[in-house]
Specification:
The protein is an all-alpha fold. The protein folds into 2 domains: about 60 residues, Arc Repressor Mutant, subunit A, CATH 1.10.10; about 130 residues. This is Transcriptional regulator, TetR family. GO terms for molecular function: DNA-binding transcription factor activity; transcription cis-regulatory region binding. It comes from Lentzea flaviverrucosa.
């Protein structure tokens, strides 16, 4: 388990307070009707802190702590599918109940807001680029590097498409995410 510095722990508490406030307000009022001032007030921070932490109101929802944990757990290996599957499993196996509740809330807001869905592409591409960078061997050919970029993008997009409901368990969600990783590598229409 990672040990956080005092500053990193404070930053994490701030990030969580903002996300929890935004989720609660947006589930109640809708994304468009929820102001950043209301989010900041409920989180107990200034609007300036909110924008320093996330940049935009949409970024509050598109910061994907789960995808960040997948990236941190990912270790380069000769088999990129096995490596990404292992990282997904590690991220799922270590998710806390508080992190799971945040994931459920975050996704609940996103699926209700078509405009919010459209803004997430950049965040997802960033995560996919990080995954591709880790998985790409130093002496990879341009074709191999391109294939790994496609694999990472397909996997991340697929992970975002896996539905979560209030009764979904992390284990069931994780099994679907692992299935998505394999489909990203072998094609969505291939027989499993």
């Amino acid at each position: 388990m990672e040990t956080l510095t005092a500053r990193a722990a404070k930053d994490l508490r701030t990030r969580l307070a903002i996300q929890e406030a935004a989720i609660a307000l947006c589930l109640d009022q809708g994304f468009a009707a929820t102001s950043t001032k209301a989010i900041a007030d409920r989180a107990g921070v200034s609007e300036r802190t909110l924008f320093r932490t996330f940049g935009t109101k949409a970024a509050i929802f598109w910061y994907d702590a789960f995808l960040s944990r997948v990236v941190r757990a990912l270790v380069a290996a000769p088999d990129p599918v096995a490596a990404l599957t292992k990282a997904v499993r590690t991220a799922v196996d270590t998710i806390t109940s508080a992190q799971w509740a945040l994931e459920l809330g975050r996704r609940s807001v996103i699926v209700r807001e078509p405009d919010l869905i459209a803004t997430g592409t950049q965040e997802l591409n960033t995560g996919a680029a990080q995954i591709a960078t880790i998985l790409t061997p130093p002496l990879a050919s341009p074709a191999q590097a391109f294939d790994l970029v496609l694999f990472a993008r397909f996997a991340v997009a697929g992970m975002g498409a896996v539905p979560i409901h209030a009764d979904t368990t992390p284990a069931a969600w994780g099994a679907e995410l692992e299935r998505v990783v394999h489909k990203a590598a072998h094609g969505a229409l291939e027989r499993s």
